[in-house]
């Protein structure tokens, strides 16, 4: 008698955000979550990282995970092959449109604090006066002159306001400049201007096609409003317990927090 065929996989593609999702507050991945990802990939599913971080801010994490596959970086702007350490695709921000968008936003809310992510495998994050950089191992380069913001191709511009909340700044920015650039909120103090129409879903769909997979094959994990397009694209979107309320509102499921192995809780159930 021939052996019974293995049951079909619940999902063939597992897409995970990094900060606030796969990573704990100390920027590490727990042993339980590593084992759960191994369980899923051992069953035949593919794991793909989908992050707002540009490649230079992502590579060290992928290396620590011994991650060799595709990663969607820069809010969907970059598709990176970790095993080959090669940038496969990259979308840059139209700097003229971005400058016009910034002028419109500042006309509405007053002066902004700015930073920007430069394109490329080794693209710097340049930071202007007043911009509050997150503490940690991620390198930034101070801007010497305001004009230097525009001196090289960019994937995104980061905005902060001295008084407005992140949600309020994102809302105003979208209202006055949403026809010129994409606007998203990716975390505390992280409001971003992106190429118009670019989202995590854009990059994830491109990566999935390269792997021979589609939206119906995909379960996605995230925690912030920038994950909403990814949830809309994937068959099943799972928000962390620590997620922003806007993402929880559109999620198919809510799991435990990133500190409590929320990804592992789900993967153990699906692939165990």
Summarize the structure.
The protein has 272 residues and is of the alpha/beta class. 30% of the residues lie in helices and 23% in strands.
Index terms:
272 residues, alpha/beta, 8-stranded mixed beta sheet, globular
Task: Describe, in plain words, how this protein is organized in 3D.
By secondary structure, the chain is α/β, with parallel strands linked by helices. It has helices at 18-22, 31-42, 59-64, 95-109, 166-177, 200-210, 228-233, 245-248, 262-271; strands spanning 13-16, 46-50, 70-73, 78-81, 86-90, 113-118, 125-127, 141-142, 154-160, 182-187, 190-194, 218-222, 236-239, 253-254. The strands form two sheets. It has an eight-stranded mixed sheet. A six-stranded mixed sheet has the order 8-7-6-9-11-10, covered by helices on one side. The mean pLDDT is 93.
How widely separated are the two ends? Answer: 26 Å
Task: Give the biggest beta sheet.
Answer: 8 strands, mixed
Helical stretch tally: 9
Run of helices and strands: EHHEHEEEHEEEEHEEHEHEHEH
What percentage of the residues does DSSP assign to strands (E)?
15-25%
> How would you name the oligomeric state of the polypeptide chains in this document?
single chain
Overall, the morphology is globular
Total number of beta strands: 14
- Portion of residues in helices? 25-40%
**What is the strand arrangement across the widest sheet?**
5-4-3-2-1-12-13-14
Report the radius of gyration as a whole number of Å: 19 Å
Structural class: alpha/beta
Low-confidence stretches: none
Mean pLDDT: 93
